Amino acid sequence: MNQNQIGSETVTSTSEQRSTERPSLLSKCFVKKKFLWIIIAIIIVILVVTIPTIVITTKTTNVMKPSTETTDVTELSTIETTDNPTTEVETEPKCGKWRQHGITIAGGHGDGDESNQLNVPSGIYIDDSNTILIADSLNHRIVEWKYNSNNGQVVAGGNGQGDKLDQLNWPLNVIVDKEKNAMIICDFGNKRVVRWSRQSQTNPQVLISNIACNSVTIDRNGYMYVSDWMKLEVRRWKEGDTDGTIVAGGNGSGYKQNQLNNPGDIFVDEDYSVYVADINNGRIMKWTKDAKEGIVVAGRNNLGNGLNQLVDPTGMTVGDSEGEIVAGGNGEGNEPNQLNSPRGVSFDVEGNLYVVDSRNHRIQKYELYYLATTKYGSTIIFKQQSRLIISSSNTMRNELELIGLVCDRSLTIISLFW
């Protein structure tokens, strides 16, 4: 009986002990869980605060840190040509630089009509094989001078001064129609434009009559443009046209935006804009396609001999207002670094510069020794069809100057010489 009581008391005591331990364990478990949640909450708060701070700090650092890429572009802008103008002073020529001492590659033996002589040459054209066509004005002929040759060959005219089909009278300009493999000649004294085949050199054809042709050029469609100094206009002629279409001037002599005063050399770009050397107004005009008025692009400061002025210009520009002497500039003379009434100018396929040194009766070659790269990383490409036919006689300085040598998007040299 006592044993049962003792066992019963033991069981009761054990049960009571367990019942008192359970709340204690639950309380401890709750405290642990609560502590764990507090730790997790603190970690979340720390992360929420820390991550944005790191991001902001990183962005601030990137903004304040100089960009290596930007620095490279800035450095290259001093030697590269870009489409957008820059206010920085360029330390190198925009497109190229030519040697100051010229090499005589045609003529240079005084005025005369021998095969190694020229007489007041005017226009010049260089084909892809570096063969030079020269408008030998006072010999009334067109002379072809092959590369590295000591003598020229008459390819048009040369039969005395006259108005017969096989004669020329003071030719001023010659270009090549590549599609027809023919020369187009501005026969100034006969007031006509004629075409001579480069193959047979016979049966020349009169394309336009009764026109005081100062200059002729063709666009990429083969349409011909002629400046007429008597009618003070430039007309475009398509094959078969009888009258042509006025594309510049034609409103009498004057200085207004729709007028010209003795239009000289002309150039047509890829967008069919016409650049006209407005000689007596001392300016270069640009007429966009179908425009009724032109835009002055050079020579805004009246006639003069400053680098931002033009004297009887017959060239064109799209660019800067001040020039850089690229040939001559050492007084009138016949030394390699001198010129005497420079006229026509052209480039060969390698970018070398050729100048018609009119009163020295010679053609001078100035070798290209520096060629810039474009922003695309390519070198300039000189295209005969996209060059400017640039010429003028500057008796005030006897030098060839360059205004706004520009590399356009087709990597073509566009420039002004006078």
TrEMBL record:
Keywords attached to this entry: Membrane, Repeat, Transmembrane, Transmembrane helix
Positions of NHL repeats: 333-369
Transmembrane feature ranges: 35-56
Highest taxon above the source species: Eukaryota
Entries under InterPro entries matching the protein: 6-blade_b-propeller_TolB-like, NHL_repeat, TRIM-NHL_E3_ligases
SUPFAM superfamilies per UniProt: YWTD domain
GO molecular function ontology, one term from the record: zinc ion binding
Designated name of the protein: NHL repeat containing protein
Source organism: Adineta steineri
Lineage: Eukaryota, Metazoa, Spiralia, Gnathifera, Rotifera
